[in-house]
Amino acid sequence: NAGVTQTPKFQVLKTGQSMTLQCAQDMNHEYMSWYRQDPGMGLRLIHYSVGAGITDQGEVPNGYNVSRSTTEDFPLRLLSAAPSQTSVYFCASSLQQNQPQHFGDGTRLSIL
Amino acid sequence: GESVGLHLPTLSVQEGDNSIINCAYSNSASDYFIWYKQESGKGPQFIIDIRSNMDKRQGQRVTVLLNKTVKHLSLQIAATQPGDSAVYFCAENRNSGAGSYQLTFGKGTKLSVIP
Fold first, then answer.
1. CB of B49 within 8 A of CB of B57?
2. Could you say which of B43, B89, B91 has the minimum Cβ distance to residue A105?
């Protein structure tokens, strides 16, 4: 098992550009989620999905879209990047939503 | 607002000593709590969890204590080793309605182990 795989590991964007952060898991987990981690803020939930075809908003969803067409993949889209979206993004998955989540190693995103 | 927080942002301990990391939560409806360890440049790694129907749970060298009366959670690490140096986060899994849960993280405590 590779676990949770995030790509790319690093990315620099200009304001206004769009981008998709990829997340894939091979553990057949139903629940997947995206967090952002900023200094002194801990991790904050952006969007989550309890299964294929189902997504919902977390604490900080504005500026981000998600889709869950398969159990394995949960991409995060930035339609028009803003400097405030500079952060480290983590994807996580778990068998069910009230169970421990497994995290990827993150995507470090800088918006200039 | 309701939040999960930590009493101390940094903690330094001597190698071989026991470490105690504390966490306060304010949402009495939370029924599941998790401790994560995060090393530099990596994602959070699951350490141990506890559900609200328990007061204590033990793992390998780690113990989590839950005091629902004062809404307090702690992580105890026995015989702390240099490899334990990391940032530790507590998180509460909060029922956000209609059977949906959201994980809310504290800001983290940085543990430094002195050889």
1. yes
2. B43
